[in-house]
Design goal:
single chain, 102 residues, alpha/beta, 5-stranded mixed sheet, 4 helices, 5 strands, 34% helix, 27% strand
């Protein structure tokens, strides 16, 4: 299950998460974002309980995007224990995204 992040739930869902968090920064008008959306959804489903998958629509929550320095989308960020451990910009394969989580 993917969680839509807002300023209100960011701390509880990401900072206080017991498991790694994959954040997908995206927008409805972004072709590459739509390309990786099914892959991100699959990762969420297959790794439920091991990885939390969250999405940030940069048009709806620009504050979160700017706080992460997101200038291009899709941008994927992996956080563990409230810290950024990995970042990737652009559409990647499922294998590339999964390797970010290791």
């Amino acid at each position: 299950m993917e969680i839509n992040l807002t300023k209100e739930n960011f701390e509880s869902e990401v900072i206080k998460s017991e498991i790694p968090v994959l954040i997908d920064f995206w927008a409805t008008w972004c072709g590459p974002c739509r390309m990786i959306a099914p892959i991100v959804a699959e990762i969420a489903e297959e790794n439920a309980g091991k990885v939390k998958v969250c999405k940030v629509n940069v048009d709806e929550v620009p504050e979160l995007a700017s706080s992460f320095g997101v200038t291009a989308i899709p941008t994927l960020v992996v956080m563990k224990e409230g810290k950024i451990v990995n970042t990737a910009v652009g559409a990647g394969s499922k294998e590339q995204i999964l390797s970010m989580l290791k």
